[in-house]
Amino acid sequence: MPYAYDPNNVFSRILRGEIPCRKVLETDHALAFHDIAPQAPVHVLVIPKGPYVNADHFAAEASDAEIADYTRAIGKVCAELGIRPGDGGQGYRLIANAGEAGVQEVPHLHVHILGGRVLGRMLPRA
Length: 126
Ligand code: AMP
Description:
This protein is an alpha+beta fold. The chain has helices at residues 10-15, 55-61, 64-81, and strands at 23-26, 30-34, 42-48, 92-95, 111-115.
């Protein structure tokens, strides 16, 4: 299945420097920045620099180097923010929305890192 990437999405514009962001971390293949409308005391987005719509697109077409760098960037951000449960942090939640059912607003892969408080159940009961 072909993946149609829209290069005018807001995260692509952040990557091109057309829109500012509050940067947390940058690596060869990833950028992390604070969400503009935080839903928890910690709310950081981690995006790959490559043009991937969502997690399954990234898994299918990104190089091993991109996948390794991106995955490690998520871990580095958690360490930097002091939320890793293994070293005294309170813990966190990762969310990657995709498509209509996932209610994805920005069509460029992003993992939300949420923390800083107890987040409650993963989903409200239907
Ligand atoms: P999603 O619904 O998973 O696509 O989430 C998109 C997220 O991007 C939302 O949490 C927005 O608040 C966030 N967002 C949109 N525009 C910006 C921006 N310019 N800088 C930082 N975060 C943004």
